[in-house]
Amino acid sequence: MPRVLLLLPTTTYRTPDFLEAADRLGLEVTVASEEANALEGKNPEGLLTLDFREPAACARRVEEFARRVPIAAAVGVDEQTVVAASAISAALGLPANPPGAAVAAWHKGTLRRRLSAAGVPTPAHRVFLRDEDEAAVSARVKYPCVLKPTFLAGSRGVIRADEPGAFAGAWRRIGRLLEDPEVARLGGKLAREILVEDFVHGAEFALEGLLAGGELSVLALFDKPDPLDGPFFEETIYVTPSRLPEEEQRTIHRVVAAGARALGLCEGPVHAEVRHGVSGTWIIELAARSIGGLCARTLRFGTGMSLEELILRNALRMEIPTLEREPVAAGVLMIPIPRAGVLGEVRGVDRARSVPGIAEVTITAHPGQRLVPLPEGSRYLGFLFSRAERPEDAEAALRQSHAELVFEIEG
């Protein structure tokens, strides 16, 4: 059986689902993480320690590893690990996105620059250094605008400002986040940057796609029914299939495909965030990875193939029976953290599960855990999943289920 190298950070939600998919396919698996595993010495073929911040070093380490343990594919699950995976794949001669394309999708300043140069609609932007004077910078930008770090994902550190006073507060708040040791270690030199871009009006949608030989297939288009107008941009509900007219869905597909070409992406999963409205279709994010958190559990293909299995099949050039999603509506609600504190008791889980249309309730936070909401935080309290005949029913089930949950937060 072929062996796949899975690049799985210790903080990812995705480990169990990727391992289950690999097991279903009968694959040999090597799991690479950024922290050494105490069992690595007893399982040298199955465990590997890599510093994902250094893609070239990762590639050298895996080249050496692959001389004795052949690797057929390298798969990352978030922005930083897909950059490392692309470098590893290039070193091993495996089909994957070019390393420069993966970096362009990860670094928001490069993403904006390449899209703009190719004529793909994306917000006007500038990248500043956070040690610049915020008053001077605030006088040079257009309002409303959005400030964000150039390397974080999941709306972390993303803040809208409508006037100079709000801009100064957002600038300082992002600066404090970038000084956090964990964040600074993750970003390295990029932790000195703050991107400022025009705010784009319109509803937001998420496209989940798969690239093979440069051709983009749409796996799902998600509606985001809750408005995302700021000042923070906490995502909550995704529902598919989209209720947009077919022609507007095709427009989003065309714009995202053009964006992928502009970046040089050609293989593997794509997750795009777009604003769509009277002003057109604008790419906000275009990542060379699949949907984050546990949200991939929303998607099933054919007779039950998971998104993770589909990604592994594509990476290994295995047969993919179908890219057609199951014929029911599906949704996910990422349970937001309402305020900072320590999680105490969680009540109402059984009632939340009993709501008609709810397929799964997963509480990922645990009692005693310190909670940090957006824009500084990067985690959710959990995930709710629904399935129904119609998208509006899937959405309604999520809202009703969420209303049944009570999270006691102390402090």
* Architecture (CATH level 2) name of the domain at 3-99: 3-Layer(aba) Sandwich
Structural class: alpha+beta
How would you state the average pLDDT, rounded? 96
CATH fold-level name of the domain at 3-99: Rossmann fold
- C-alpha Rg, in Å? 21 Å
The number of strands is 21
Question: What's the main sheet like?
Answer: 4 strands, parallel
The stretches of 5 or more residues where confidence is low (pLDDT under 50) are: none
Main β-sheet, spatial strand arrangement: 3-2-1-4
**Helix content range:** 25-40%
Number of helices: 12
- Assess the beta-strand content as a share of residues: 25-35%
- Using the alpha-carbon principal axes, give the shape: globular
Please explain how this structure is put together:
The structure is a single chain. β14 (300-301) and β15 form a beta hairpin. Helix content is 31%, strand content 28%. The protein has a four-stranded parallel beta sheet with strand order 3-2-1-4. A four-stranded antiparallel beta sheet has the order 5-8-6-7, sandwiched between helices. α2 crosses α3 (79-92). It contains twelve helices and 21 strands. The protein has helices at 15-24, 55-66, 79-92, 99-106, 108-117, 134-138, 164-179, 181-187, 246-263, 307-315, 349-353, 391-403, and strands at residues 3-7, 28-33, 47-49, 73-76, 125-129, 145-148, 159-161, 193-198, 203-212, 215-223, 237-240, 268-277, 280-287, 300-301, 305-306, 329-335, 341-347, 358-363, 370-371, 382-388, 406-410. The protein has 411 residues and is an alpha+beta fold. The model has no long low-confidence stretch (mean pLDDT 96). Among the domains are: 3-99, 3-Layer(aba) Sandwich (Rossmann fold), CATH 3.40.50; 124-198, Dna Ligase, domain 1; 328-411, D-amino Acid Aminotransferase, Chain A, domain 1 (2-Layer Sandwich), CATH 3.30.470.20. The chain is globular.
